[in-house]
Amino acid sequence: MQNLPLVSVICISYNHAPYIEEALNSVLQQSYPNIQLVIADDCSTDTSKEVIENWIKKNPTVPFFPNSTNLGNTKTFNNTLKKVNGAYIIDLAADDVLQPNCIEEQIKTFQNTRFANLAVVYGNLELIDENNQFISHYYTDSDHPESGDIYKMVISKSTKICSVSSMIKKEILEKEGGYDENLSYEDLDLWVKISRKYDFEYIPKVLVKKRELNNSLGSYFYKRINPKTKKLHHSSYVILLKAYYLNKNKEEHKALLSRIKYQFMINIHSRNYPYIFKYIFFYIKVFFKSL
After folding, report:
1. Contacts of residue 33, Cβ cutoff 8 Å, sequence gap at least 6
2. The Glycosyltransferase 2-like domain covers which part of the protein (predicted)?
């Protein structure tokens, strides 16, 4: 390896008590030596804070920032980002697990890349259940994760990126303002913004184990008549509007139409009628731009 740049792992917990120790230990067990681990808890209502404090007793050099009120993941992450020093950032949910060579592989990719404008590297992962049982891989043989300029693939949903398998340059993350704190989820908005200006590179290896739980954020996209679901759908709509204004040509508008159709069907499933109509009008608007 050319050098050993500092990598900051920001681990945010919210009601992850049964899984936190495994997540934190997976950072300590990395083959890459130059890591700064920082923990935040977003005012969990379970015993997460106590579990972290007990873990800290064994690892007293790791800083811990518990919120006194629930701020949400995006604001908690941005606040913690200001306190880290790494040149590269990993956003680790406290119920996920890094493979022992995860960070080493990511840094190698940054250092050996063929892309002059590389901002993000990402890899494959194993989906596991609450008992650590294997479910599937995130990318299957039929998927073709992209490298380079992937903006059009991101907005069309032909490329999906799981944030937990990614590493990003801190200077670029800061330049783009971190996560949008007005949104209910963070990753798609960030990938749209960054892929507009910078390159991505895919690592064809399993880097992370991502836990799929019944109450995970992704499950709420499909629930019916649920306040949290409505907030998620509002965020998706705002993100796609941002993409619309970032688009530069007809091909990109055509790509966005695919994502709009996808979101339209999700809103039908969840019976989110106001956004069903919003997406109809949005589709028409983008369709004429694509002609």
Report:
1. 4
2. 8-173
Residue 50: phi and psi, rounded to 5, are -65, -40
User: What is the topology classification, in CATH, of domain 7-213?
Assistant: Spore Coat Polysaccharide Biosynthesis Protein SpsA; Chain A (3.90.550)
Structure tokens at 127: 């989906």
Give dist(CA 44, CA 16) in Å, integer. 8
Query: What DSSP assignment string belongs to 136-188?
Result: EESS-TT-----BS-HHHHHHTSS---GGGEEEEHHHHHHTTSS-TTSS--HH
The three state secondary structure string of 31-80 is CCCCEEEEEEECCCCCCHHHHHHHHHHHCCCCCEEECCCCCCHHHHHHHH
Does residue 145 contact residue 157 with C-beta atoms inside 8 Å? no
Cα–Cα distance for residue pair 83/76, rounded to 1 Å = 11
Question: pTM of whole model > 0.85?
Answer: yes
Q: What is the mean pLDDT of the chain?
A: 93
Residue for token pair 């992370």: 208
Domains of the chain by residue range = 7-213, 218-290
Q: How far from the centroid of its chain's Cα atoms is residue 79's Cα?
A: 17
Closest CA to 12 of 38, 51, 50, 46: 38
Q: Which H helix or E strand runs over 209?
A: strand 199-211
d(CA 24, CA 52): 9
Distance CA 241, CA 86 (A): 32
